[in-house]
Structures are given as C-alpha cells and as structure tokens.
C-alpha cells in the first residue's frame, strides 16, 4: 500500500518520511549548517585492509569523500579521526595512519596532513596554525586505551580540539567509544552524508520493504545473525542460510558436519529458529574437502553424505538452484556474509552465484559485511550493481535487529 501511494504522489513520500523521522526522533545532519570559520572534528571509519604497505580496498575512503569535501569547501578546518586495526591501546608502528592520509590526499586532490597524535598541546598548536578549508588526519584513536573505554577525560580532550562534531563512521556507530559517543557530550553533534544515507536506506527496509523479502545470511557465527533472523520472522518470505553459519543449522537437523566450523553450543538456537520458520532454506548439498588450501581436492556431497573427516566449505549446485529461485522472485534482498570459502576457486562457486544473482536482480538489494564486499570485488562485480552497499557489517546487523546504537542515538534531536 505504501509503495502504491508513493508512486501516485511524491508528496506522500515526503510526508511519510517526515512523519517517520518525527516518530523516531530526527537525525541531526550537516546539510543546512554553516561551517565557515569552524573547527570540525570528523569521525570516519577509514579502517581499510593494508598489505605490503598498500591499501587493498579503498571503499570506505571513497564513501567518506562527500562529507570531507563539503566541510572543507564550506570553510571549516577539518580534523579527521579514525581507528586502524586493533592496536589494543598501544602504539603499533604498522598501524599508523600515514598511508590513509596519503590515499586521501590523492582521492581529494588536496593535501591531507597527518598529525602524530590525536590529543596533546602539539596537536592543538598545529590545528591553530591551519587555514580554514585545510584537512588533517589525526593519529589512530585506538593507540589510546581510553578510546575504547569511552574515558570521560579523553573524550573531553578530543572535544577540546573543535567547535562541532560530525560522525560519518557508520561502521562503528554501534560502539560506545570516546571518539564516537564521548565527544557528543561536549560538542554540538551531527551526522555526515554517509551516515545519513545508511540510516535512510536501512530504515526504509525495516519500515516498508517491498515484498517478497529474501534474507541471505552467511559468514560464521550465529550469534551476530540470529537477532536479525528473529526480527524478520514476520517480514521476510525466505531465509537463505549459507557459509559456516549453515553448518550449525545442518547439525541442528541431525546431519554430520565432520570437522567443519560450526557452533555446537548454538545448535538448539538454530533448531528453535527452524521450528518457528518453515521458510528457512539450508544447504541440501555442499562442497567439502579434508583440508583447506589452494590445492585442496573438492567433492560435492548431499546433505546426508558427509563423513567425520569432511569440512563443508561451500554450498552445492542443488542448493545454488534453490537459492537462485528464491532470489529471482524477491523484491527486496538483504545479504550479509559469503556462502563459503570464496578465497579459493574450488569453494567460490556458491558465493559467486549468489553475488551475480543479487547484482542482476531488479529487486532492492542491500549488501553488508566486509567479506561480502571483498567477495564482490574479487569477482569483479561493480558495487553500483546493488541498490546499497553498507560500509558497516556489524552496525548494519544491529540496526536491522532493532538494537539501540549509542553513537547514533547521540545524534538524534
């Protein structure tokens, strides 16, 4: 009914979105603000994979560009905060963000100077000497143990650098850290363009998805996925379960999973979900091997044919056919997590088939999770073939589950 009315009247669409925002509080955004002469602390998620001194995937950097450009071109001193890797509160030379600053400079065609810390008197002096419109990248926030602890004094120190705080880091908006949540207690705080887009797209999926809805869940752990599966029990028409996640469901059906990765302590959770949802589709066949390597010998087995020595590493051809049929009939597709060990060709067919089918579909398609995006890029499928590619796997799942995201709530009026 909603989609019928929106096609009849764009005015209704505007009214509906305004009403929805009002009902759930309004996300404060940057589009109508004046940043001339302001120092802006901009939290981004630039946690890119790095190997041999090279950024392997700059998706998150590209996604951050519109907000950076907007702030700089509107006369702000732009002070970028990000984390990189897991330094565990210590200075790790390989996790300094110099490489990120260099990459941003090239993408923006504008110098992005990297500072040696994110708080201290030297940093403050360097910020004071900046021209308005200049951009700097502060050092890895997670070099400070106070960051993840959301330490009040550390939060206050970060906030003292600026006049305004902008959060455009959807990938960590579910974290209660000093640079995502703590600073909001000391500065006027707003959402950047990327965060605004993520929330708009995912809110529409929750409130009024076009039906039929198909949920595709892969990856490893049931803990991070079961909440979303439960949330969509009365919204989705089919649940396609693959990856190591599926192994727990296969075990719950009483079949052998051999030496496959699965969560033995979550078998009852999987069994309970399947008892409540007849539209749960798990692999009826799969690709197995006795080892994991680029030279591993792969075999196709039916669901009841695995032995105690087998590792299940991909969905099989019969399962692919079932999954593709459900994808073809869907109007909304949500996909998080690969179907198998896509890094090796002999175990990549399931993920490739799903990725290509979702990309070719006319449905609204939302994809999240670092491994899903990495797989898509490995298969040379353009990201713009999907309606929306989320920059935050965990944050996307928690938002769709309906969990309160602390750093996001702090940006609501």
Shape: elongated
Broad structural category:
alpha/beta
Identify low-pLDDT runs.
1-24
Helix content: 25-40%
Strand order of the largest sheet: 5-6-4-1-7-8
Describe the sheet with the most strands.
6 strands, parallel
Distance between the termini: 30 Å
What is the overall pLDDT average?
92
Helical segment count: 16
Counting DSSP E segments of at least 2 residues, the number of strands comes to 17
Give the strand content.
15-25%
Q: Give the radius of gyration.
A: 23 Å
How is this structure best described in words?
The structure is a single chain. The protein is of the alpha/beta class and about 425 residues long. Helix content is about 40%, strand content about 15%. It contains 16 helices and 17 strands. It has helices at about 1-10, 10-25, 60-75, 100-110, 120-130, 145-150, 150-160, 195-205, 225-230, 245-250, 265-275, 315-330, 350-360, 370-380, 395-400, 405-410; strands at about 40-45, 50, 55, 75-80, 110-115, 135, 165, 190, 215, 240, 280, 285-290, 300, 310-315, 330-335, 365-370, 390. The protein has a six-stranded parallel sheet with strand order 5-6-4-1-7-8. The longest helix is centred in the first third of the chain and has 15 residues, at about 60-75. Mean pLDDT is about 90; it is low at about 1-25.
